[in-house]
Each structure stands twice: as C-alpha cells, then as structure tokens.
Recover the amino acids of this structure.
C-alpha cells in the first residue's frame, strides 16, 4: 500500500469551509465554488471530491466509489464510512469514471425523499456563463454552466430524475478544486 | 492571551487555532460548541433540505445549553453553518437587545469567537425568532429561523405518520378547510402569525411564528432561508429565489396585517409595529418591532436635522 496522504489540515475549519461551499453550490445551482485547496488525495480522486466526502461522509453514511483501492484506503481512513457493494445502496456515490445510471441510485421514498443519494461526479471542466441553461429554485432567472466530460445522455437522464420529484438524486460536479451542484429541483436546458 | 476586545468581555483562554478569529473563547469546547460528527449530520440534513424546498427532514437534535423553546433548533443550524469569518446577528421578535437574542449572541462569541452585530446589513448569518428584518436581505446572507412547531398540519392532524403521508401526497385539503372555516365564521382568515405557505408549489410549510406581515418577504428572497426545530427535531429550508405563496382563496386573497399607525420613534408607516402599553389608563404607543431598522431611521433623521 502506498503512503496515505493527509486529510484536512484543520479538520474543523476546513470541513466548515467545504460545507459552506457545497451549501452555496446547492443553494445556487450552476454557480461554481472552490473546495479542497491543498488536498492531495490519491489519483484519480480530485481535491474537490475528496473535500466534499471528508466534510460530509462518516460512519453514519454508506459510500460507493469507483476510484480504486488507493482511494478506498484513503476514504476508509479519513472518513470511516462503510462501503456499499452496489451504488444503489449508498448515500454518497463517487464517480471518477463513467457515472452510474442515475435511475439505479437510491431516490428515497415519497414520504422520505431526503434518503435520496448524493452523486459526486468528477468531470474534466466546469465553466460559468456558457453551456447549459439552468432554472429552478435558487436561480433568479437563469444560470449557465458548461460541463465537459459527462455522458451524452446525462441531460435526458436528469430530466427523468427531476420528473419524479420529491424523490430523486442530487448531484455535485467536481473539476479539480471547483464544484457546482445540481439539486433535484433544477431544470437543465441544453445550449 | 490577547486582551479582551469590545465584543467579548468574558470567556476563557485562546483556542489558538490557525485562521480563527481572535477573541477570548471558552476552553474545552469544539469550535461552535457541537462535535464534528453532529455537525456532519446537521450539514447533510441541511443540504437535503435545500434540495427539497419546504420538506421537513428529521435530524438527531442534541441537548443544547438552553431550554426547548429558546431556539435549540436555530442554534444547532447556526452552529453547523457558522465559520470564523461570519458575522452573526440574532433577533428575538425583531429586537437585538432581548434576553434570548443577547444570550445566543454571547454563546457564539464564547464558543466560536465570531464577530457579532446588531446591524442587519453587516450580518452574514441572521438567526431569528419570529421576525424577518425590515431591510431586504442579500445573496450573501443566510437567515436561520427558530421554529417551535415545524408541522403546519399539527393542529389539524396530530399523528406524525399521517401528516407525513399527507405531505407525500401533497394533500392539503385540511388546511384549506381550516382557512375556509375562518371565513365562514369571521368573514376573513383569522391567522395573524405562522400563516401557512406553499413552497415552490409543492410543500405546505410553517413559516415559524413570524407575523403574516412578513410572509411576502419570504417569496423569492435572495438569501438562503434555513429552519430549525429543536424539540420537534426537524430541519427544512427555502433556497434563494424560490416561490413562497401564502395560502388563500381567489375571493379572499392573502392580506398582510399591520397596525394602522406610524412608529412613535421613527415615524415609519411601512414597518411592522409592536403595541406598547404605557400606563393603566389606556395609554399606548406603537413602535417598530425591528430595533435596528428603527434606530437606523432615527439616526438618519437626527443627522439631517
């Protein structure tokens, strides 16, 4: 096993700063926030994705990831979260490669939609001001977000995810140290 | 140890944490009082609450060093989001100088060393009991409501299992009947506070016991709104720019109620007023409930004279 890199330099304040970045991203879908500055998680995990999991995952949440054994050892040590065998069983799903089908993840129930999973997807790039047109709660008129590196059928899958509200999956997109979030309420129009 | 500054006259030693706002904070407590596992649980709940606007989410409310009914829910939400660079304002019925507001502000000064303020414009986090400040909130602010009863249907259907089902079906006929019965009996909807709202057209939500006068401020507010109920152990949220509609009928539209007077101190005819009894012969006056708004207007007028 390779040497384990450190987690947050300040577990208390770094977790708080990361959470506020995620909260801001989730409250204003399509606005890009920064998270994970200074973190060196094992490849292919990106600093932002690692920070989100350090801040939110622990022994009370099940985790599924596709980032390999080094990442698993890192997450086991720093988060202490139990790993799920299947993405459908996990509260947090980390996708560093092709993301699992959203419809296969836990979407919660009509009475307890909060049990829906959080899908953390690593993408090649995130840019504001171009690409998708986002609307919904948290957005005054329209936010634009360009995402590079998602499967071509993502927008169609997202429309189906949004269609079963209040059930659904929430997505956090990570690119390096940048994050943007897609709560299940947000509508995505292409171009 | 650094000398005590003007906003924290008491407290123990320095926490000496890098990046921490300086100021005497109590030793032996984690930043913002709660342990990290509790904060993570609260933070996960808050994120799901933002993703499902108006939906109440159960959480493991902790025992806090103040009794139920004094803001245990609000204080836990504030502790979960608070950081060293935040400036905290706490109001109780609009006032910054009441016991509840002063003690919660002092609590966070002592356990988190954060800056506090009484000015709405300077605050990044505003914890409130039963009011929304008169001054419009901005995108860089978060308002945290203390909620005694998060379930808007509680007086109509006491069984939690049943209200959960009604929310899942978006079946809010009970509440419409309740409002209709008011109209049949009194000729108008006789609910002056905790007036039920629909959030994003889906969930019926208790806005906490703010006056109905404040309800329109919740609609498409630029600031994030978080709600914490400690005794009832529920958290819910309204994201920025989200539709919040007060329930009403086409022929009985919602009307915010305000005492038809001007503030005795600042003369405002727009703000929400408290009635103050001045003697035992029927003497009374009306003053702004929002003390920061009122004193700001008085200061402006004095500067102009």
């Amino acid at each position: 096993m390779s040497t384990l890199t450190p987690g947050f330099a300040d577990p208390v304040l770094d977790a708080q700063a990361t959470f506020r970045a995620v909260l801001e991203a989730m409250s204003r879908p399509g606005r890009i926030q920064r998270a994970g500055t200074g973190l060196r998680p094992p490849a292919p995990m990106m600093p932002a994705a690692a920070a989100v999991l350090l801040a939110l995952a622990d022994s009370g949440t099940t985790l599924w990831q596709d980032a390999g054994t080094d990442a698993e050892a890192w997450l086991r040590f720093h988060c202490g979260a139990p790993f799920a065998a299947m993405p459908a069983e996990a509260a947090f799903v980390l996708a560093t490669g092709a993301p699992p089908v959203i419809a296969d993840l836990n979407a919660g129930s009509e009475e307890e939609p909060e049990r829906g999973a959080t899908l953390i997807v690593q993408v090649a790039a995130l840019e504001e001001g171009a690409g998708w047109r986002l609307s919904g709660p948290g957005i005054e008129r329209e936010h634009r977000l360009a995402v590079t590196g998602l499967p071509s059928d993502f927008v169609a899958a997202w429309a189906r995810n949004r269609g079963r509200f209040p059930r659904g999956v929430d997505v956090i997109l990570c690119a390096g140290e940048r994050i943007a979030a897609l709560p299940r309420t947000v509508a995505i129009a292409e171009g | 140890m650094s000398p005590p500054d003007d906003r924290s006259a008491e407290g123990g030693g320095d926490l000496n944490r890098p990046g921490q706002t300086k100021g005497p904070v109590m030793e032996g407590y984690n930043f913002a009082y709660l342990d990290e596992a509790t904060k993570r649980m609260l933070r996960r709940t808050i994120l799901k609450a933002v993703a499902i606007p108006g939906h109440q989410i159960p959480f493991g409310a902790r025992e806090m060093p103040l009794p139920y009914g004094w803001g245990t829910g609000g204080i836990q939400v504030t502790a979960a989001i608070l950081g060293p660079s935040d400036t905290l304002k706490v109001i109780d019925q609009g006032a910054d100088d009441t016991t509840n507001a002063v003690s919660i502000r002092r609590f966070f000064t002592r356990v988190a060393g954060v800056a506090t303020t009484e000015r709405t414009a300077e605050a990044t986090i505003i914890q409130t009991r039963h009011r929304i400040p008169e001054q419009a909130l901005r995108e860089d602010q978060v308002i945290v409501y203390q909620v005694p009863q998060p379930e808007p249907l509680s007086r109509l259907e006491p069984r939690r299992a049943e209200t959960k089902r009604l929310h899942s079906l978006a079946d809010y006929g009970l509440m419409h009947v309740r409002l209709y019965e008011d109209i049949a009996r009194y000729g108008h909807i006789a609910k002056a506070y905790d007036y039920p709202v629909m959030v994003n057209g889906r969930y019926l939500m208790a806005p906490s016991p703010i006056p109905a006068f404040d309800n329109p401020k919740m609609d498409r507010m630029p600031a994030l709104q978080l709600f914490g109920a400690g005794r009832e152990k529920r958290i819910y949220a309204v994201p920025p720019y989200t539709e919040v509609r007060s329930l009403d009928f086409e022929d009985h539209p919602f009307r915010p109620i305000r005492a038809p007077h001007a503030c005795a101190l600042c003369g405002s005819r727009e703000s929400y007023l408290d009635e103050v009894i001045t003697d035992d012969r029927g003497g009374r006056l009306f003053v702004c409930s929002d003390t920061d708004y009122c004193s700001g207007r008085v200061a402006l007028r004095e500067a102009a004279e």
Q: What stands out?
A: DSSP finds four helices and nine strands in chain A. The longest strand of chain A covers residues 125-135. Residues 158 and 189 of chain A are 10 Å apart (CA to CA). Residues 11-27 of chain A form the longest helix (17 residues).
